[in-house]
Amino acid sequence: MTVREAVAAVTRALTDELVVCTTGFISRDACAAADRPGNFYMIGSMGLAPAIGLGLAVTRPSRRVVVFDGDGALLMALGTLAMAAQWKPKNFYHVVFDNEAYASTGHQPTPTREVALDAVAAASGYARVARVESVPALTEALAPWLAAPGPAFLLVKCARDAAAPSGRIPHAPPAITQRVMQAAGASA
Amino acid sequence: MPPAAAPANPTDEALAALTSERFTFFTGVADSLVGPLIARLSEGSSPRYRPAVREDTAIGFAAGAYLAGGWPCVLMQNSGLGYCLNALTSLNLIYQIPTLLIVGYRGYQRHDADAPEHLVMGRACEQLLTTIGVPVHVPAPGALPGAIHAASQWMREHRTPSAVLVRPDVLGGHTA
User: Fold this and answer.
1) What are the φ/ψ torsions at residue B153 (nearest 5 degrees)?
2) Which of the following CATH numbers is that of domain B16-135+146-166: 3.30.70.920, 3.30.420.10, 3.40.50.970, 3.30.70.100?
3) Beta partners for residue A157, in sequence order
4) Confidence of residue B110 (pLDDT cuts 50, 70, 90)
5) pTM here?
6) Nearest CB neighbour to A56, from listed B59, B64, B87
7) Is the complex ipTM more than 0.95?
8) CB contact under 8 A, A44 and B59
9) Given an 8 Å threshold on Cβ–Cβ distance, is B95 in contact with A82?
């Protein structure tokens, strides 16, 4: 399972969630899977996706917030796991696509071959933690995982994607902000 | 002879300014200079202040609150600005996500010259923020509410962050 396949599988399971997509190929794969107005595509500030998602979740408790994170990005701000456990937003769903590499910059390795991020999330205090390693397992896990309360963590172990990367995000950053605010019901 | 009016409490005045500017979301990382403000925002059974683990994480947390319709404020010490540079430049400033930064001004005019860790950022922080496009207010004692109003006005007009640096003599916090 590549990150691209995993992102597409999760996207198919979504309805009206707000989704924060981390920097790099994960945002591009999310946009390629479905350019949802509720997708916040990050092109910078790597590592801050779960923090942004938490801000959305605690401010708008009536909406489910999903974070599309990567292993390298999560490791950049691992302390954010403690914040999720502290605020315990029931509407917060943290998906980590873990390909054990910084894929967007040439697949340099991250330490997650040795570090089990699902165990780290469990130790941090997430209400529910799951791990999947294939598209069928992911597809089967998603509906119940999204239906039960958070904060929930889903580790999706992925393989290297040899295909050409998905295209760049076609929206200017301020337009992304406006789209997400409208999708969130926030007056811009 | 009428009784003298009680001297205004600078923390009360700052809270009143934040309320009148309708700030709804407060996060940040501990600082002693802005500590009196953090303490007041942390009171009650559902405190308005939600601490973050690091200053750039606080910037992200606040950005999410803004996307959901909040009007965010991040409190920190100026040593945290280093961590925030990438968040401010590649999130807030390009996505037009405003945030009020209330920043303890450690090393202000070398007032704590016995704390070497404050001196370089104390010398550079105003210029650092101005250089990346975040306007800076350095209010004198009594002028903090006016600076909060001006910063919020900038945020409304430009949809980008604005900073208020809090000198050691403004809120009565300490730099230990």
Assistant:
1) -60, -45
2) 3.40.50.970
3) A98
4) confident
5) 0.96
6) B64
7) yes
8) no
9) no
